[in-house]
Write a structure and sequence with these properties.
It contains no helices and twelve strands. The protein has two domains: 11-41, no CATH class; 62-166, Immunoglobulin-like (Sandwich). The strands form three sheets. It has a five-stranded mixed beta sheet with strand order 5-12-11-7-8, with no helix packed on it. It has strands at 13-17, 23-28, 34-39, 62-64, 72-74, 78-84, 92-98, 105-106, 108-109, 120-125, 135-145, 153-164. With 181 residues, the chain is mostly beta strands. A hairpin with a 5-residue loop joins strand 1 (13-17) and strand 2.
């Protein structure tokens, strides 16, 4: 849309970008007359969804399958397993952490395609990174897929577990002496 206003042979027009894809045309004259018009939004093609690493148009998925939210486990070392939408043909990586300790650590692919197939994966919490501690522990798995465009797509799955002291850390009960004869 074009607006042109003439008054005393003075013409001024200014096109400003507006909200929601509209352009605002503002024509100002030396007199106090201001004319504002909106143009309809230009038609833009719908964005094409980036194909995911799984070869279809869905986003990656990941799940910790060996533990359930709220489960109680002994403190110390722990190995978890999980599944993801990754496969041997995609370019994804799976990571794990506990209680948001950074950096996240690489999980091990155990899918049928070998070490780079994270359709099934494992991760071991060891003293080299962090073990399960007494109390609440948030375990997080992350999948990042790099073959979906200029920016990787990442998804997360977390479970909260409770670390309990192992039975061998409890002291044996001490008998209470009898007060009767």
């Amino acid at each position: 849309m074009r607006i042109l206003l003439r008054l005393s042979n003075v013409k001024t027009k200014l096109i400003l970008p507006g909200l929601f894809g509209f352009s605002i045309l503002l024509a100002m004259i030396i007199s106090p007359v201001i004319v504002i018009a909106q143009t309809p939004p230009m038609s833009t093609p719908s964005p094409t969804p980036a194909s995911s690493s799984t070869g279809n148009d869905t986003e990656p998925t990941i799940e910790i399958t060996s533990l359930q939210d709220g489960q109680m486990v002994p403190v110390g070392e722990l190995t978890i397993q999980g599944t993801s939408s990754d496969n041997i043909e995609s370019s994804c990586q799976v990571y794990a952490d506990v209680n948001d300790i950074t950096p996240m650590q690489n999980a091990t692919g155990s899918g049928s395609g070998g070490a780079t197939d994270y359709s099934n994966w494992t991760f071991a919490y060891t003293p080299d990174y962090q073990t399960i501690t007494e109390g609440t522990n948030e375990l997080t798995a992350k999948i990042s897929c790099f073959d979906v465009g200029p920016t990787p797509i990442s998804k997360y799955n977390s479970v909260n577990i409770t670390g309990l002291p192992s039975p061998d850390t409890f002291a044996a009960p001490v008998p209470i002496p009898s007060t009767t004869g």
